[in-house]
Amino acid sequence: MSKDLQYYSELNKRGFSITTPIFNDVELKEIISLIQPAKEKYAMRQLMIKVPELQEVIFKNEKFKDLFNAVCKENYFLSKAIYFNKPSKSNWFVSNHQDLSISVKDKIATTGFSNWTEKNGQVGVIPPKEILENTVTLRIHIDTTDQTNGALKVIPYSHLKGIIRIDEHFDKSDYGKEELCCVEKGGVMLMKPLLLHASHKSTSHFDRRVIHLEFCNKEIPMQWLEKRKVS
What we know:
With 231 residues, the protein is of the alpha+beta class. It contains six helices and 13 strands.
């Protein structure tokens, strides 16, 4: 079995997988040079709309393209792209959650779509579970990520539990043991949106920059806001 197929198997089984470095220093510098002129310091949403050149840079990497083809199969398109940075000594943490909200063009009341939001002109909604189950996230790590600079903590297999209610009765120990996800610079973390994940504060002098890409193969009545064909 090839490495990419191993990653795909682990993703489906455990809800996540971590690759060895795929992007080299030259490619990462090119990615950074495209993002740096932007004003957003901590996060840039609608990333491929704002910086469309990034898609070509990322997908000209043959290793990444092979990984995408092994994991996403046919008919998958880019449905969301975000640049995240947890700068050095960042004093915030993110509690356990699932990535439930998708970005859409219009608010159209539809059975199975709930919890509508609108922030900075961007409409979000939680879709039916089937949409989330057919979504794959690939997180490109621009920096080495470990326990000191906010690496994700995940609960393996929790993606198999469906949409989990996070309220005062939520106890993460009910869903299994947390696992820290250290990723080397240039590596990619694959994950399912329904995987429970969290992150600590940063105690490091180093940033934790990540390109977060979501891919799906399902159409929706209100249309995807960020849909882009992958070639």
